[in-house]
């Protein structure tokens, strides 16, 4: 008599498929706009982030209006933060954010200048990145009270 099969049918393939997927991490992305239809730019950014591969938009903070930073005369900003669960690597998420900024007509001019859409990766799980073009946690987190408020709001919804 042979021994009984350990596993049979479709169940046999399921564990290896799951194991091949990298675990998703929690990424906090800050959205800002101070040109054109600011609320529409934020909405389109949320939609674009939610439709990235292997990514779910789990929660969005309230939208807050803030004065521009850097002392330039320019319109005020609408700001919001979203919480993503993503299997993308931080660099891949940065590239996606930059593509979404371009899609919304962002022109890269002066550092603190007005923009249709600005996307910043504020946190990405417990990761620490310090490359020339990507720093995580975002170096301006400690200077921006509204980011800290938005982070607290998103974490208060955590289950
Ligand atoms: P900004 O003017 O805020 O759009 O910043 C532009 C530059 O910040 C980009 O060229 C990015 O490469 C760089 N950068 C560094 N760290 C981050 C981050 N955590 N999130 C987004 N951009 C970043």
At a glance:
28% of the residues lie in helices and 25% in strands. The protein is an alpha+beta fold and 159 residues long. The longest helix has 14 residues, at 90-103.
Highlighted features:
28% helix; five-stranded antiparallel beta sheet; 4 helices; Alpha-Beta Plaits; alpha+beta; single chain; binds adenosine monophosphate; 159 residues; two-stranded antiparallel sheet
Write a structural description.
By secondary structure, the chain is α+β, with helices and mostly antiparallel strands. It has one domain: 7,8-Dihydro-6-hydroxymethylpterin-pyrophosphokinase HPPK (Alpha-Beta Plaits), CATH 3.30.70.560. Helices cover 28% and strands 25% of the residues. It has 4 helices and 7 strands, in the order H-E-H-E-E-E-H-E-E-E-H. The strands form 2 sheets. Strands 1, 2, 3, 4 and 5 form a 5-stranded antiparallel beta sheet that branches. It has a two-stranded antiparallel ribbon with strand order 6-7. The protein starts with 13 loop residues before the first helix and ends with a helix. About 4% of the residues have low confidence. The structure holds adenosine monophosphate. The site of adenosine monophosphate (AMP) has 10 residues, from strand 5 and strand 7.
């Amino acid at each position: 008599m042979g021994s009984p099969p350990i596993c049979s049918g479709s169940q046999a393939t399921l564990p290896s498929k799951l194991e091949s997927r990298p675990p998703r991490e929690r990424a906090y992305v800050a959205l800002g706009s101070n040109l054109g239809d600011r609320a529409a730019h934020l909405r389109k950014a949320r939609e674009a982030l939610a439709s990235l591969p292997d990514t779910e938009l789990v929660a969005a903070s309230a939208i807050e209006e803030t004065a521009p930073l850097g002392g330039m005369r320019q319109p005020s900003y609408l700001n919001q933060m979203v919480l993503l669960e993503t299997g993308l690597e931080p660099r891949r998420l940065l590239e996606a954010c930059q593509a979404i900024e371009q899609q919304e007509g962002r022109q890269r001019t002066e550092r603190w200048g007005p923009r249709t859409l600005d996307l910043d990766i504020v946190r990405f799980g417990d990761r620490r990145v310090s490359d020339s073009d990507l720093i995580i946690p975002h170096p301006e987190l400690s200077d921006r009270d509204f980011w800290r408020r938005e982070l607290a709001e998103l974490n208060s919804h955590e289950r």
